[in-house]
Specification:
By secondary structure, the protein is an all-alpha fold. Helices cover 78% and strands 0% of the residues. The protein is globular and about 45 Å long.
């Protein structure tokens, strides 16, 4: 693929939370009360992007074609760029970045241990689902932070075409044999609950320990799950 074609492809975006949807959610729930301290938000976002970058790089090594391997490693680079951007912000708020990243990295690693598969394409589906789900959730959560910082964080989270690259890998797989469709649908369905757990780990501690936590979170997760469903629909998979 020529470099100009790759640039065009990277500009292709997938469905994500829109400003209108953010306004709708914030009218139903006090998002500001859900957001953790800024340093905690950035640390969890950075740790997640670092994990996603590593998962994509590993999946690229087992890919069945040169195009799949290349697309996955490029998507890994986008996740790593997000990690660097979040890390740079974190460095302004904590004395030791490594120490700040350690707790969320440990939590996220435990989640991903449950995702591990012997099939590389299921690992790709995992990153595809988790990338989109958590990006939309972190995007909404950022709206509970000061406006200037919220806009900066949301800019980092914007889809840079990496989801389209992952979707393309999965689309090519599904074209090989339709039997992969039911297998991937089942795999992606089981990921939703774990993706929600990753998202919950990013919330203010006072939220997760409150008696009305589920009621307060329902409007947020409703919109995020709706976007997740659209992503699977694009691939012809059922959510």
């Amino acid at each position: 693929m020529a470099w100009w074609e790759r640039k065009k492809k990277l500009g292709k975006t997938t469905p994500s939370i829109s400003p209108r949807q953010i306004a709708a959610v914030t009218s139903r729930v006090d998002v500001g009360s859900l957001a953790p301290p800024l340093a905690d938000y950035v640390a969890s976002a950075a740790a997640l992007q670092l994990t996603l970058a590593g998962e994509l790089a590993a999946a690229s090594l087992d890919a069945w074609s040169a195009q799949d391997a290349d697309d996955l490693i490029v998507a890994s680079g986008v996740a790593m760029d997000r990690y660097r951007a979040f890390r740079a912000i974190l460095a302004d708020y904590v004395e030791d970045v490594s120490d700040a990243l350690a707790p969320p990295r440990d939590k996220i690693s435990r989640h991903f241990e449950r995702f591990q598969s012997s099939r590389w394409y299921e690992d790709v589906a995992t990153v595809y689902v988790v990338t989109g789900f958590t990006r939309d959730f972190w995007h909404l959560l950022a709206s509970g932070l000061p406006d200037a910082m919220a806009a900066r964080l949301q800019d980092i989270l914007v889809d840079q075409g990496d989801e389209a690259l992952m979707a393309g890998v999965l689309e090519r797989l599904l074209q090989v044999d339709t039997r992969y469709s039911s297998r991937l649908s089942l795999w992606c369905r089981r990921l939703v609950g774990d993706a929600m757990l990753i998202a919950r780990d990013a919330l203010a501690e006072s939220v997760t320990s409150s008696a009305d936590a589920e009621v307060r979170l329902e409007p947020v997760f409703t919109d995020v799950v709706a976007q997740h469903t659209r992503r699977l629909d694009r691939l012809g998979l059922t959510a």
